[in-house]
Write a structure and sequence with these properties.
There is one protein chain. The protein has helices spanning 15-25, 79-91; strands spanning 7-12, 29-34, 37-42, 45-51, 61-63, 66-68, 72-78, 95-103, 111-117, 123-129. The chain is α+β, with helices and mostly antiparallel strands and 139 residues long. It has a single domain (7-136), classed as Roll (2,3-Dihydroxybiphenyl 1,2-Dioxygenase, domain 1), CATH 3.10.180. The strands form three sheets. The chain has a four-stranded mixed beta sheet with strand order 1-4-3-2, covered by helices on one side. A four-stranded mixed beta sheet has the order 7-10-9-8, with helices on one face. Strands 5-6 form a two-stranded antiparallel ribbon. The protein is globular and about 50 Å long.
């Protein structure tokens, strides 16, 4: 069965820094780059980064012990991919909205998680799980 592909458009302030973050650091492929937008294959989904000088992300809620950007998106990947992304982001001195943590310990939903800002302030959450399908577990 084919699952639907999510399409998401996000505001960005600069095309070059966007390409570096999503392609070089997160490992996403890029299908189209034009003056005011970039089409990104974001782990099987269609992400369009569009230039906008007026949009901005912000911290707006508390989840757990830290302030958290209410508007965010992300991906759930195998643990090895999570670790690879984390190393690349730390090496590049990326700005984390939430430092890496381990949550839901001892449950089927046990996961490593971090939240990082892209160069335009969009919050991207990455979860690493041995079995990503377990994110739907009711436990």
């Amino acid at each position: 069965m084919h699952k639907a592909t999510l399409h998401l458009s996000i505001p960005v302030k600069d095309i070059a820094s966007t390409l570096f973050f999503y392609h070089d650091l997160l490992g996403c492929s890029v299908s189209r780059v034009i003056d005011d937008r970039v089409d990104i294959e974001f782990f099987g989904h269609h992400l369009v980064a569009q230039l906008s000088g007026v949009e901005a992300s912000h911290v707006s809620v508390n989840i757990g012990k830290n302030p958290y950007p209410l508007r965010h998106f992300g991906v759930i990947v195998q643990t090895a991919i999570y670790e690879k992304m984390l190393i690349a982001l730390r090496t590049a001195n990326a700005v984390f909205a939430m430092q890496p943590d381990r949550i839901f310990i001892g449950t089927p939903r046990e996961q490593s998680v971090f939240l990082v800002f892209d160069p335009s302030g969009n919050a991207v959450e990455v979860k690493g799980m041995d079995d990503p399908e377990q994110v739907f577990s009711a436990q």
